[in-house]
């Protein structure tokens, strides 16, 4: 049985409301988790746990969100920007994210903007309808 | 030195569930100030009791190799006040445990009445906060704290 994107969005929104203490109408597809919804690093773990339970899926460490380990690796990050190797690594490990805007200026501080509610919905959709 | 805020475990199912008891008494100095003439247990200390009960449960699940730190209070809803003489029964269940973190949900009861519903997330800090180094020694589960488990006698054994 496949679940529609709207249904996934509704469930993702409900879980974000509970995890982050935000109002339902603050959560749109374009909302960024850190910038708009004030998520902190531990909230990402909370969200992963909730999504696993809600959709009965397994989310491997750092598949949905970027590896902190990776960001501390000089092979991938140089002067606060992702190296070409780092960018390739991100693209292959996170195919649910659109890096086209980001790669023009791959500043690691802007990575947070990549994680929107739509990214989560797309990721979950890929998992359950695979 | 770490402080111990629960009295004993009465049930302990490794990796799954634990129940601890805490007796509340006027010997606790803060109750004289919270509040003068009307001593009640601070809600924050109920969260602490849950954090200790479930923190040991989570630590035990990984053989105490991880440094288990309270990272987020997901939920804390209190239904009644707790006064000196009350005995709290603190029950914690692990919902999920992964390499980097664990989450638990729990309840606190007093004489079969619901006192609190609390949900917490613990971080295994060596697996998170990349780049930061912590002491080799496990400062969370020191010898004094571990006595709580070494003193644990299953209640069923005591009754028989």
Can you summarize this structure?
Chain A is mainly α.
Break the fold down into its secondary structure elements and pairings:
The complex is a heterodimer of chains A (130) and B (160).
Chain A: H1 5-20, H2 41-55, H3 68-71, E1 77-78, E2 81-82, H4 84-93, H5 117-128
Antiparallel strand pairs in A: 1-2
Helix pairs in contact in A: 1-2, 1-5
Chain B: E1 8-13, E2 17-23, H1 30-33, H2 43-61, E3 68-78, E4 87-97, E5 101-110, E6 113-124, H3 143-150, H4 155-159
Describe this entry's structure for a reader.
The complex is a heterodimer of chains A (130) and B (160). Chain A has 130 residues and is mostly helical. Chain A folds into 2 domains: 1-65 and 115-130, Non-ribosomal Peptide Synthetase Peptidyl Carrier Protein, Chain A; 67-114, no CATH class. Chain A is built from 5 helices and 2 strands. In chain A, strands 1-2 form a two-stranded antiparallel ribbon. Chain B is α+β, with helices and mostly antiparallel strands. Chain B has a 6-stranded antiparallel β-sheet, covered by helices on one side. Chain B is globular. The mean pLDDT of chain B is 89. The chains are: A mainly alpha (130), B alpha+beta (160). The A-B interface holds A 19, 41-43, 45-46, 49, 52-53, 61, 68-69, 71-72 and B 71-72, 74, 95-96, 98-101, 103, 121, 123, 128-131.
CATH class of chain B: Alpha Beta
E-strand count of chain A: 2
Alpha plus pi helix count of chain A? 5
- The number of domains of chain A is 2
Fourth CATH level, the homologous superfamily of the largest domain in chain A:
ACP-like
Strand content of chain A: under 5%
| CATH architecture descriptor of chain B | Roll
Order of helices and strands of chain B: EEHHEEEEHH
CATH fold naming of chain B: Thiol Ester Dehydrase, Chain A
Summarize the biggest pleated sheet of chain A: 2 strands, antiparallel
Low-pLDDT residue intervals, each spanning 5 or more residues of chain B: none
Query: Could you tell me the radius of gyration of chain B in angstroms?
Result: 16 Å
Tertiary shape of chain A: globular
CATH architecture of the largest domain in chain A: Orthogonal Bundle
Tell me the domain tally of chain B.
1
